[in-house]
Each structure stands twice: as structure tokens, then as C-alpha cells.
Design goal:
The chain has 497 residues and is α+β, with helices and mostly antiparallel strands. The chain has 3 domains: 110 residues, Trigger factor ribosome-binding domain (Alpha-Beta Plaits, 2-Layer Sandwich), CATH 3.30.70.1050; 219 residues, Trigger factor, domain 2; 97 residues, Chitinase A, domain 3 (Roll), CATH 3.10.50. The protein is built from 14 helices and 12 strands. The strands form 3 sheets. Strands 1-2-4-3-12 form a 5-stranded mixed sheet. Helix 10 packs across helix 12. The radius of gyration is 35 Å and the shape is elongated.
Length: 497
Amino acid sequence: MKVTVENKKGLQKDLKVFIDKNTISGYLDEKYEEIRKDVVLKGFRPGKVPTEILKRQFGKAVYGEVIDKLLKDSTTKALEENKIKPAGQPKIDLKSFGEGKDLEYVISVTELPNIDVSSINKLKVDEYEVKIDAKETDKRIEQIAKSQNNFKAAEDSYVSKNNDLVVFDYKATVDGNDFEGNEGKNTQLVLGKDLFIKGFDKQLEGVKKNDTKKVEVNLPENFPKKELANKKAVFECKINEVKKPEEVKINDDFAKTLGAKDLNNLKELISKQINDEFKNSLDLISKRQLLEQIEKQKIDDLPQNLIDQEVQILSHGMKEDELKKNKKSLEEQAQKRIKTGLILNAFGEKNNIKVSQDEVNAEIQKQLRMMPGQEKMVKEYYEKNPSAIDGIRGSIYEEKIIDQIKKTAKINKKQISKDEAEKILKAENEKNLKEQEKLAQHNHDHDHNHDHDHDHDHKDDKKKSDKKETSPAKKTSVKKAKKVTKKAKATKKVSKK
């Protein structure tokens, strides 16, 4: 194989590839030997069909298969030997081919730019630690204590009221008739919660132990017996006990009920919990700081084909006049995203950052745990959508890169109060809202602020719910940048001349 590289404009290159007919003939002979053992033709023993007969029967198919494989293999080899990392799929232009002929073709490819990531080590980032004072911790523990359902038995003469716990037996009828599930023993009901049947609680206010009470309510619309839905039911109730809410004492015993060793240990755990609640959002701000600095890094030339693809994604759903009006803005956004993705990927490659299958599996399992009762559906989704798995891999890859960058960046550690943290997050939210409003002006409610950790083909995109927490970190095209640096093993775009 002979390869001649011709530099064109910018990152564009043409690789002229020549493979002589004798080499091709050798591949064809190997293929005929491979298929000979499986071919069954009348008049010939298995594995003994002459090559000439095989050529007459399967010649075109065999030649096509051999050439396809040869194109893929030689394209990969040509790019590797010339140390060219393609930005996207190479195009193949066949110049000469056919049985008994040399194979000549041209690989037209856009090359990824060489990126110097040495300056990444000089980035600066704020890292926040929220100092939680004792008053804030005590306040949270008091809220937990108030939420605990703790009741003590009231005296027999005590009359029930709102927030009391009533324990009772009942038997219900509809139009004087029994129905399945119409009886209950020692049913517990906290008055005022309206958790049983709407309007039931109110009618049990004013009862005492050993009282009988007739309660009339309409059965709910979703009642299991559809024929009884919305029907008036009469409940004959026997009051077994009335309990009053008891204030929970905040002490070591209370702490132990929550899994702590003692009250001091509970305070430590609650303080950390509050800190962690702020940490995730504050870490996103730190990430955004890094990404904004990365966006400012200089790259002499960007692959135009990647920019064009990104513009197509950003403009998805736009009308032609909208597209023309916002073309410049869209191109600027696309350039930032592509540049950031390429820089992060270059950093990842330099530092040999990889994502293992175990890490991908762990993330999927995490998602399964977050969606109880829907595990099967989520699992099937990933099994049917390899691009969704690629999205997970891309997200993990980006996070690992960011974590590595943080290790070399100049960290400005800031210890702040809870109030200061809330102010920072509020300001960040307002900043995000302004950016979203700006985007919405030309996006007209199209969902363009989507993740770019996917293949950019929009196949079976999994919809993501809007997060209520602050999410300042811009998504980048890291996965795509990683993908296009892989070996060009597939050559789908072939023009025959």
C-alpha cells in the first residue's frame, strides 16, 4: 500500500491510497478458500468446488466484500501511519477499481487540531466550604423532632381533636349491603391528615374511647370496586383508643432512633448533611469557572464540519428566517462548545483518562436505585439504546477530566456561612435565568439547552427532567470530541467515479 498526503486548506487533507492488483488478488484467494468449505454445489464434494466455479457463482459478491474490508482496513492504517486524527467521518472517493485492476482512492478528511493543554495547569477556581453554625444544626434537628409521630394514650374521658391519633374498628356498607374489604380492625388515623377517605377525619373529632360513631362519606373515584366508586358508604366505627401527640425530647435516645450514637454525633451528622446539600450546587459553580476559563484557551483552527453539526443541533426546529437572523450567535455558541470539548478531550488523552465498563455499570445501577418500581423499564431502555450508554460514558469521562484538572489548578478555598452560600447560589440562579432568557429570544421555546454528551443524532433521546437545584455548569461536546478521535473504521460515504 502506498499513501501520499496532500495538505489542503486549514485542517483539510487528502490521502491518496494505492493498492496493487496482486495484493487484492491475494485477499480474493483467501476469501475463496474461506467460503469453499461451506459451499455445496451439485456434482462437487464439499470443500472441493474449483475456484473458477466459485468465481462464476459468487465473484461479484466476494469482490465487493473484499474491497469493503480492504477500504476500511487501509483507511484506518493510512490515518494511523500518518498520525492523523479525523474530526468526523472520512469520505472515500474511488478512482480506480475492478477485478484485475489496481485499487486507487482518495481519503478526504478534516483533521483534529493539535492542542497544547499545558496552560490548563494554570487555571484558578474557587472551592467553597459552608460552615454550619450550631443554631442552624439545632434548628434542623428540631424540625426532624416535630415531624416524628409520637403519641401517648389519653385518659378515657379525653375528647379527640385535630392532630390526635384515633384507633378504631369499622364495618362499612353501601345501600345497606356489605362489600369486599368493608371491615377493618385497629385502624389508626391521625386526625387532620385526611389520608383515609376525604372527609372521614373531621367526623371523628370529638370522640372518646369506647364510643361508637357513624361516619358517612363518598367512596373515592379510584376505589378498587369500580361499581362502588363515588357511592355513599356508611362506616360504623368503634373507638378503641385516643392518643395525644407527645413532644419528642431531643436527647441521646432520640438521636439513637435516627441511627446516631448519641446527640453530639447526631449534630455532627446533621451539620455534614446541610453542608453536603450546598456542596453539590457550589461544586457546579466551581466547574463552570473552569469551563469558562477553558473556553478562553486559544485554538488556531477549529474543524468546520464539527461546528456545522453543532449549529444544526442548536438550530433544531428553527424556521429558515430565524436561522438566518441568529446564524452568527449560533456559530459562536457552536465554536465555544466544540472548542471546550476538544480541549477537554485532549487533556483527557494526555493524562490517559479512561472510563471502564464497571464505572458505566455502576452509574446505571445508581439510576436504577433512583427509580424504584421502574428498574425494568430503565434497564430495557439502555439495552435498546446504545447511544444512551455512550451518553453515560461521556458524562463520566467529562467528570473525570474536570476532577483531574482540579488537582492541578490553583484552588482558592473559601469558608463561607450558610447565608453567604445562599446569596452565591441566588446570584448564580439569576445569572442562569438571564442566559436562558437570552437563548429563548431566538430559540422560541425549542429545547436547545440539551446535553451534548451523545452522538448528536437524536435517536431515542431520553428526556431529562428539569432540575430545581442550581446547574450552572455548561455541557460540552466531550464525548463527541472523544469519539471523532477514534480510528476511522467505517467508511460509509463512498462516491464512485
